[in-house]
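Appendix B, example 12.
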Amino acid sequence: MRGAGGVGDDEAMRTGSELVRSLPDPAAAWKQVVARDREGAFFYGVTTTGVFCRPGCASRLPLRKNVLFFASAEEARVAGFRPCKRCAAARSSPVDKVRAYIEKHHDRPIRLDELGRLVELSPFTIQRNFKREMGVSPLSYQRALRAGRLRGALKQGGSVTQAVYEAGFGSPSRASEGAALGMTPTQFARGGKGESIGWCSAQTEFGWVMAGATARGLCWLSLAGSEQEAEADLRREFPAATLRRDPSLAVWIETALASVAQSFSLDRKQAGTKSLDLRGTVFQLRVWQALRQIPAGETRTYSQLAKEMGESRATRAVARACAMNRVALLVPCHRVIGADGSLTGYRWGIERKKVLLTVERQAAES
């Protein structure tokens, strides 16, 4: 469905966990507060008063050092702030109403004109405002809700067919296309049963490195404190797959280590003729590809990476995709840092991230 009649476009779909409102860069958000921008799709809290407001609030302008930004009123409340009465900060916005409506009716088609009547706005305005605040269109949001419900139901066991239809998909084939499971719903429900994954591990200066590959290519590269921990991580990620030791995969580990120590990108030096077998949503794959474009020895903030992707409002979704990366080093999520320069989180440990960045910088400078 498209245009005024449908809730859609062809943008990359994201998983339900990624569909959170994304804040603009703090500097940009502050400019909107100073300008009293009524179109600002975020909230700010003032630490000296304990109150949170909308960017267009006419109350006295606080000092920048006393301001914190939030993606939603709920987040501001959780942080201990109370809503401003002057700008009615806690009042539900049209987008909030549309979002709640989609969540309630996720299992059936919803047209833009139906959403327009709900909040007395035109279909075009609904589409524009929803995408501006949520980062995705109403249709993509609905699809991601279905995908999230399907994943949850499949992990709980029970009938695959029933889970497919209860999630709102018309058939198992539509679920395979729309849920981005990386496999069929049946395979997903079985924890990857039937998948054959070869593995190889080695002790390195960064700890134990574990490589895992399917017939399609490398699907796993992790860092751990011991070989036992590395193998346990692999088995948790693919609980029902058939795992077999494959010494030939040592070439992947060597290439991954060389990409750090010699400061090069996998795009310029492939490990044999094999490729990466990355599995995720379309949006996650875009993020992982963007990570591979960051030159060794350099870093990006999450907001910078989002802007480079043309998704300036999707900072949080980008951060979530980085956290879901299964292939360390070769998909260098360690090259992404916080806006204040802090190393922030890293799936395989902050200390390892620090060491990796130091080694890469030294290699790039030599």
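Confidence is low (pLDDT under 50) at residues 1-22, 170-185, 187-191, 267-273. The beta strands are 43-46, 51-53, 67-70, 82-83, 196-204, 207-214, 217-224, 242-245, 300-301, 336-337.
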